[in-house]
Write a structure and sequence with these properties.
By secondary structure, this protein is of the alpha+beta class. The chain folds into 2 domains: 49 residues, no CATH class; 105 residues, Immunoglobulin-like (Sandwich). It is built from 5 helices and 9 strands; from the N terminus they run H-H-H-E-H-E-E-E-E-E-E-H-E-E. Strands 3-9-8-5-6 form a 5-stranded mixed sheet, with no helix packed on it.
């Protein structure tokens, strides 16, 4: 539990705050330490503030992410309005986002078994020839899909355009394309 300097480690503070991986004895010990240690109390306050900032930025559509289906289900269960698109390997979709959508989720089906590291490369028709690479994106090989959540606020402001996404397996022998996905975006009519 200790960070080695007599203070609680960041992991212990996170477990305490999120109520994860902590036995009742660990919670009691953390409670006792936090009541006596101003530095650890301050560190916990900073972690909580950081979490709130991330939540606010995410809810405002200012953050993009690669996430899990469980995360999306949890947000939908909390009442968020979710627009979802499912694309098969090498597929495309006509897509848009409504003014009241709060989350935009792209389900990119992919053969992920045996993949150790996965990168995603995006290119917008609005910036031809400019690629943006996300390295080492999280994925579940058994799920057979990657869930991408773009910056919703930015997508709502976009004119008609095309987004291409490539998923790449990065292996010792080199890079192998797993799939290519094309989004034909149109602004919401109105």
């Amino acid at each position: 539990m200790s960070g080695g300097n007599g203070h609680l480690s960041v992991e212990a503070l996170l477990d305490y705050w999120l109520h994860e991986n902590a036995s009742s004895a660990a919670v009691d010990a953390a409670d006792e330490h936090l009541m006596q240690c101003e530095a650890c109390g301050h560190a916990l306050d900073e972690l909580i503030a950081l979490g709130e900032g991330v939540r606010s930025a995410f809810r405002a559509g200012a953050v993009s992410a690669v996430t899990t289906a469980a995360f999306v289900r949890r947000l939908a269960g909390q009442g968020m309005r979710v627009r979802e698109y499912r694309l098969p390997v090498n597929g495309s979709v006509d897509c848009t986002v409504a003014p009241d959508d709060e989350l935009l989720v792209s389900h990119l089906e992919a053969p992920l078994e045996g993949v150790q590291r996965l990168d995603a490369v995006t290119e917008w028709s609005l910036e031809p020839g400019i690629e943006h690479r996300l390295e080492d994106v999280p994925f579940d090989p058994q799920a057979g899909e990657v869930l991408y959540l773009p910056k919703l606020a930015a997508v709502k402001e976009l004119p008609a355009n095309i987004l291409q996404v490539k998923l790449l397996a990065v292996e010792a022998a080199g890079v192998r394309e797993i799939g290519r996905y094309v989004f034909h975006h149109r602004p919401w009519p109105g």
